Amino acid sequence: MQLDFKARELTVKLVYYGPALSGKTTNLQAIHRLVSPATSGRLMTLETRDDRTLFFDLLPLSFKAGSGIQVRIKLFTVPGQVIHNATRRLVLQGADGVAFIADSQHRETKANQVAFLNMRENLKENGFNPQSHPLVIQFNKRDLQDIRTDEEIDTLAKRGKEPVFKAVATRGTGVIETLLGLMELTWARLESEHQLQKKFGIEPERFLLDVRERLGVGEAAE
Q1: In the chain, % of residues over pLDDT 70
Q2: The pTM of the whole model exceeds 0.70
Q3: How many domains does the chain have?
Q4: Is 188 within a domain?
């Protein structure tokens, strides 16, 4: 989290992690498409020739919270290819929360596992505790053949403590829910560590209502 007292701006960094072609960039594209232009900034993408993300994507979301603080939520993705691990680790620096985007296809199970372990290792390298860092998991590509069943994913979800979401990012299904779930976890952690309500008058419940309204999935309280 970054806080500019003079400008009264608070910046939260969220990173989308996962194996190559799991749908990290597609999630950001869907968010950019679904969110009001007044809230979302320009989606910046650097790609390789085969349309895989080489460095990172960045989608800034910005709005004024009820307290008058300008909140900026910066969404990044990391490159999925193993050869770009140094870039993955660099993008993960300063991340307030992480969304792990897994591919639902059975054939991608190993790739999911490798990427998840790699994420945990890079969190450690950046000084984070993987056990307590805000994290949600999304199983994407639910519209394809030969995928893990809902029952399989529900069973996996019960084994861990991280919230699990199901998505079809190309259609925008489950994308906003994943972001809201991550934002809720992340804000709870930031409030616990920095007492934002006491210091800046940002009430957690009202803040999350503001986020939901800006994302077009609810109305802020009167």
Answers
A1: 91
A2: yes
A3: 1
A4: yes
